Amino acid sequence: MNGAHSLPTTTDVIDIAIREITTARALVLKITGKQVRGVDAIASLKATALAWFNTHRPIVNAGTSDLDLTTVDSYYTTILNSTAGYAARQTYLDALQVAKKSLVALRANALTNQASAASGNTDDIAPDFSPLAGNQEMREILTRRWQECCKCVNASAHLAAIVMMGGLLEALFVARANKMTVKDPLLNASAAPKDKATGKTLNYREWMLDSYIKVAHELKWITESAKDVADILKEYRNYIHPEKERRHGVVLALNDSTMFWSVTKALVRQLLLSASAP
Length: 278
Fold this sequence. Notes:
By secondary structure, this protein is an all-alpha fold. It has helices spanning 10-29, 39-63, 70-82, 89-119, 136-154, 158-178, 184-187, 209-218, 224-237, 242-248, 254-276.
């Protein structure tokens, strides 16, 4: 908490929920039967779910309206509904495990929103990755990657920030390719990399960032100017190799990471728009 007399923050409450879920899962792990039948165990699990809905959730919801609680709610609902009978032990274990992961992701989102609100920079709030990633787990991973880019820039970890940006873009390019029902335009693009031995196009999941950038521009996923700056980002990311940094005498600074972060955000939004287009 933030002091003896202060009210709990959104992240404080999420931390409490995470601890409760962890304790509940430890309780279920001790049960040897295939079903949870003990009156005390069922009562404890029910109390854990009700604590979320009746106590924690209202505080989280009041603290910020930008957080999506749907996923967390669904797993707590599974836990609560399971207490109505003798549900399988594995049902509880699965729901509790994913509930914890969802709470951890929720906490990360809350921290990012707080940082953005404090700085007045709403542009750093992670976008909705649904147009590119239909899988909830993948959307949460992409959101965490976005947030880590923000943190690296703000912490003056400029090389780490640029490396993270390149990784985020590669993941999104692959996701954009996955969205294509017909892959022919992708595989037949003139910039698509070829196997030197066979002359056939390489599996797009194995492409390097350079090829993704060129093909993305060719397929009009990103603009010409975005492609040009992305090419520079790609080169700067290669300074992860110390010898290259030494040879070129490059020292990355705040101007570099903040500029490339702006470029990365613009590229991400262009990819999202291209995936949403009819």
